Amino acid sequence: MDLITKIEHRVIESLKLTGLVEEYGVYAYVGLAFLTILILGWVANLVVKRFLLEILRSLAKKTKTKLAEYLLQESFFLRLSHLAPAFVISSLSELVFVKYEVFGGLIAVLVNLYLVIIVLWVIDAIIDTLYKLYEESKISSKLPLKGICQAVKIVVNVTGIIFILSILLDKSPLYFFSGLGALTAVLLLVFKDVILGLVAGIQLTANNMVRKGDWVEMPKYGADGDVIDVALTTIKIQNWDKTITTIPAHAFVSDAFKNWRSMSESGGRRIKRSIHLDLSSVRFLNEKEVKSFEDIELLKEYLQKKRSDIGARGLDLEKHGLAAPLLNGRNLTNSGTFRAYCIEYLRAHPSIHKKGMTFLVRQLATTEKGLPIEIYVFVNDVRWVEYEGIQSDIFDHLLASLPIFGLRAFQFPSDASLAHLGKK
After folding, report:
1. Pick the CATH number of 208-260 from 2.30.30.30, 2.30.30.60, 1.10.3660.10, 3.40.630.30
2. How large is the greatest C-alpha to C-alpha distance in the chain, in angstroms?
């Protein structure tokens, strides 16, 4: 008599003593055996969690590695411990219900379903752990993989659902995989956003178009701020007013948007602003004014070069100087001298890029708002608050310097100025 037969004989004998077999027959045996197996499975689960799981957790904490830390955060070992009762129940049911194929088959199906669910749960924990490790790496800021990880999870879980259906319907998984071809149109319709997001995510990642931390501007969707999340189907942008704009990932491929990342990486942020001079204040300088401007350190070299240039041309420097009457020689203007001062002032400014980036102070075409003097330079501090402070300080100084050159900034008359004229 083999071991299985002995176990069944003893179970039946014990049931006979209680009178259960005579009253309920085989159902009493199956019920009691199934209850016993469940209790043993619960005990196995309890032992694994209380002892083995605690040992693994303590070892993981002692290693003090990121991998162990993230495995604990994702409950990897806890999820893995749920496999123990499944193996116990599966093994014991094969022994106890060897002659009861219906009950044995039913338990096998339930155990297999349970195993598939736990395996999917464990794989999800592994994917999340690997993603967290990747987020800690240096290349994570350059290559966002959250969308790809989500796509992998979808593929894994869809595959798991197919295995669950194959177990329930007793069909080969290949049967369901082959049937997916016939449902392609339906799947494309149902998972349209997911498919578009996946394709867009691959394009965004491959072309390095947008990643977490980028400053992105997309007026069509009212988005202007930092990218805080790059997911499979959506990208979240935190605007400067702290609101969140969620945009479909495929919109970044099909629509236009501005990414300020290259500006941050270049180390320079552009100033492009004009000072509009009142045309009525633009005039020639006289010799006395020229000599007074030579006392300004930033203009000494410029004025000396102008005097040298005039002398090289053979003009009567003693007679006319830089302020020839009736246009009989070289004449300096207050607007041109002011423009020269702007150039020298910006060159001497410690926060302005002098090499490698555009440095330009130019006069634009006159408009109904006067004569624009445009400042086109780059600040070497790309931080927003610091950049605005530097820009404000520069223009405060230049605007305050206008009266020294006999210039006025153009502005439209206000109600107060008109009322003041009326009083006169």
Report:
1. 2.30.30.60
2. 139
In sequence order, what are the beta bridge partners of 363? 373
CA 152 – CA 128 distance, rounded (Å): 11
Range(s) of the chain covered by CATH 2.30.30.60: 208-260
Question: Which residues are CB-contacts of 325 (< 8 A; sequence separation ≥ 6)?
Answer: none
Two structure tokens written together for 146: 């959250």
More confident residue, 5 or 112: 112
Which backbone phi and psi does 410 adopt, to 5 degrees? Answer: -80, 140
Higher pLDDT, 235 or 312: 235
For the record, the structure tokens of 251 come out as: 């919109």
Evaluate the CA torsion angle 56, 60, 66, 72 in order and state its sign. positive
- With a CB cutoff of 8 Å and minimum separation 6, the contacts of 147 are 197, 198, 201, 205, 230, 231, 232, 233, 249
Task: Give the mean model confidence (pLDDT) for residues 17-24.
Answer: 47
With 0.70 as the threshold, say if the pTM is over it: no
Cα-based distances in Å from 36 to 29, 33, 84:
10, 5, 16
For the cut 70, the answer to whether the pLDDT of residue 239 exceeds it is: yes
Dist. CA 274–CA 318, nearest whole Å: 37
User: Is the CB of residue 238 less than 8 Å from the CB of residue 222?
Assistant: no
Q: How confident is the model at residue 318 (pLDDT cuts 50, 70, 90)?
A: low
DSSP 3-state of 163? helix
